[in-house]
Design goal:
Elements: E1 2-4, E2 9-10, H1 11-19, H2 25-31, H3 42-71, H4 74-78
Helix pairs in contact: 1-2, 1-3
Bound molecules: FE2/S2 (inorganic) cluster (FES).
Family: Belongs to the Bfd family.
Protein name: Bacterioferritin-associated ferredoxin
Organism: Acetobacter fallax
């Protein structure tokens, strides 16, 4: 889905930028080698960026929990 029609920035581009370490809107645009022009997309980029960062944080926490369970042998007891 296109988020920024001026630059052809998509939701997948935003997720790819977050996966590459972007945490600010400017970093999302920079990852696509562009920058906001008219600015109409900025609220959408901010919203998607926040959601992607929340998802990434939740995934990291879940993976950390799995790792801790594995370290304690809990995963072997469950399996
Ligand atoms: S729609 Fe993104 S800069 Fe215009």
């Amino acid at each position: 889905m296109f988020i920024c029609s001026c630059n052809g920035l998509t939701d997948k581009d935003i997720h790819a930028a977050v996966d590459a370490g972007a945490t600010r809107p400017q970093e999302v645009y920079a990852a696509k080698k562009c920058r906001a022009k008219c600015g109409n997309c900025v609220p959408g980029v901010v919203c998607m960026l926040r959601q992607a960062l929340r998802d990434q944080k939740a995934l990291t926490a879940a993976l950390r929990n799995v790792g801790e369970m594995s370290d304690r042998g809990t995963m072997q007891a469950v399996a």
